[in-house]
Amino acid sequence: MAKMYYQGHGSFRLTTDKGTVIYVDPYAGKGYDVPADLILITHEHYDHTAVEKVNCKDSCKVYRSGDTLVNGDYKTFVEKDVKFTAVPATNKNHSIDKCVGYIIEIDGLKIYAAGDTSTTEFMPKMADMNIDYAILPTDGIYNMDPVEASKCAEMIKAKTTIPIHNKPGELFDVSMADKFHCEGKKVVLPDEEIVL
Fold first, then answer.
1. In the predicted model, what is the mean pLDDT of residues 69-96?
2. How far apart are CA 113 and CA 14, in angstroms?
3. Which of 53, 56, 70, 190 could join 60 via S-S bond, C-beta 3.0 to 4.6 A?
4. pTM of the predicted protein model
5. Are 74 and 68 in contact (CB under 8 A)?
6. Could you tell me the pLDDT band of residue 170, with boundaries at 50, 70 and 90?
7. How far apart are CA 71 and CA 28, in angstroms?
8. Which class is 3-189 in CATH?
């Protein structure tokens, strides 16, 4: 079974059933010791790009937003048993031509890693994509707040939605997570690993 380990802030690690390890937006917390096969960066802000923290295999590949969004074209890649597709991410703090989210497909699951964003025109289209997990920012400063994120969750219609990135400078704020509401909500705390 695939697993998700949450480091805190916007950082998490996915592990496939075959043992492929994917880090998304490394920066916060701990848990970077498991050797990486793949690192996905949603945008170039410092709190999403601490690749140097990750213990990388010799064959590890790093994909940044500039690799996955090229001239307005959102690219799809396959690495080992992982398929991932860049999708739009944007708000007043994050330019649509420099930021992406990812739909990551592992072990028959579709995981939407939103990156830093607010509501996008693409989100309603995800309702028909059978997203299993949506991982959404909720800080209300650099991204959408919990109320807007709750509305996005309704649009996306993932089976499970996990609020993250909810208090700048902190790994996690439970009080902010309490303000996020949707069917299938799941709160994951820093240094917690769940089976997907």
1. 98
2. 11
3. 56
4. 0.98
5. yes
6. very high
7. 30
8. alpha beta
Task: Report which residue type is found at 79.
Answer: E
- CA 79/CA 162 separation, integer angstroms: 25
| Distance of alpha carbon 178 from alpha carbon 196, whole angstroms | 22
HEC per residue, the chain: CCEEEEEECCEEEEECCCCCEEEECCCCCCCCCCCEEEEECCCCCHHHCCHHHCCEEEEEEEECHHHHEECCEECEEEECCEEEEEEECCECCECCCCCEEEEEEECCEEEEECCCCCCCCCHHHHHHCCCCEEEEECCCCCCCCHHHHHHHHHHHCCCEEEEECCCCCCCCCHHHHHCCCCCCECCCCCCEEEEC
What six digits make up the tokens of 7?
Answer: 């480091």
- Amino acid occupying residue 52: E
Mode of pairing for the β-strands spanning 133-137 and 69-70: unpaired
Tokens of residue 158, six digits: 């993932």
Domain ranges for the chain? 3-189
Q: Mean pLDDT, the chain, as a whole number?
A: 98
Q: Alpha-carbon distance 164 to 115, whole Å?
A: 10
